Amino acid sequence: QSQSSGQKVGMRNSQDAISMMQTAEGAMDEMSNIVQRMKDLATQSANGTSTAEDRKAMDAEFTELRSELDNITNNTTFGGQSLLKSGTGFQGDVTFQIGGTSAEKLELKSTGTLATALKEVVGTGKGTDGAAVKVGIGDQGKATASMAELDTFSQKIGESRSAFGANINRLEHTVNNLSNMKENTDMANGR
Predict the structure, then answer these.
(1) Partners of residue 96 on adjacent β-strands
(2) Quick one: how many helices (H) and strands (E) in the chain?
(3) How large a percentage of the chain has pLDDT more than 90?
(4) Average pLDDT of the chain to the nearest whole number
(5) Residue 48 has pLDDT above 80, yes or no
(6) What does the pLDDT look like over 83-103, one tens digit per residue?
(7) How far apart are the first and last CA of the chain?
(8) 90 neighbors 24 (Cβ within 8 angstroms)
(9) Are 73 and 89 in contact (CB under 8 A)?
(10) pTM for this structure?
(11) Tens-digit pLDDT profile for residues 96-127
(12) Which whole-number Å values give the CA distances from 64 to 24, 52, 57, in the listed order?
C-alpha cells in the first residue's frame, strides 16, 4: 500500500514538474517570437533605404520589445516561484521528487545544460542585457551590430527550449513507468 501511494505521489510530482517546465518553455517560445521581430526590425533599420524617421519608429518598437523580454524574464512564475529570472528558478539547482524513495529524483543543477543555456539568454551582459541590444537600432551601425547579437540570442533561446523539451520528455517517461509500476503493485496487493 505504501509503495503504491509513493508511486502515486511521484506521478503527481512529475506532472507538476512537467507543468512547471512547460510554463518556462512557453515563455521562451514567446521570447523567441519577440527576438525574431527584433531581428527583422534591426535588419530593416540596417538597410540604406531606411530614413532617420523610419529608424526612430523602428527603434521605438525595438525598445518596447526589449522591455517585454525583460518583463517575461522577470515575471514568468509557477506557483509563485520565479522560473527565468537571473539567479532563481531554472538557473539554480532544482530538484523534483519523482518517486516514493529519496533516491527517485530529477536534479537540474546550476551547472547543467539547462541552467547554462538560460544564463546565456538572461545572464548579465547576455540577451536583453547585451551591449548591442541595449543601445537599440536608431542608426544603421547600431542596427547592424544588433543583428549578430540577436542571432546569438535566438540560438541560445533555442538551446534552452531544447533542454526544457528533453527534461519534459524524460519526465513523461517517468510518469508512464510509475503508472505501470503502480498498476502492477496494486494488482499484486489485490491478490
Answers:
(1) 106
(2) 5, 4
(3) 52
(4) 89
(5) yes
(6) 888 777 787 788 999 888 889
(7) 13
(8) yes
(9) no
(10) 0.87
(11) 998 888 898 888 887 777 877 887 887 767 77
(12) 21, 18, 11
For residues 43 and 179, is the Cβ–Cβ distance under 8 A? Answer: no
DSSP state of 130: S
- State whether residue 137 is helix, strand or coil: coil
Measure Cα distances from 143 to 19, 55, 87, 117 in Å.
38, 9, 30, 25
Q: Which three cell numbers stand for residue 89?
A: 528558478
For 95, half-sphere exposure in the C-beta direction (CA atoms, 13 angstrom radius) is: 6
Instruction: Give the residue from 88, 76, 87, 75 showing the smallest Cα distance to 20.
Output: 76
Instruction: Collapse the DSSP code of 45 into the 3-class scheme (helix H, G, I; strand E, B; otherwise coil) and give the result.
Output: helix
Which has the closest alpha carbon to 84: 69, 95, 105? Answer: 69
At 6-23, the pLDDT tens digits run 888 989 999 999 999 999
* Residue matched to cell numbers 536608431: 138
Cα–Cα nearest to 114, from 170, 177, 70:
170
What's the pLDDT at 3?
80
Grid cell 530614413 in the structure block, residue: 51
DSSP characters for 54-101? HHHHHHHHHHHHHHHHHHHHHH-EETTEESSSTTSGGGS-EEEE-SSS
Q: Could you give all domains of the chain from N- to C-terminal order, each with its CATH number?
A: 2-189 (1.20.1330.10)
Please report, as a single letter, which amino acid is at residue 172: E
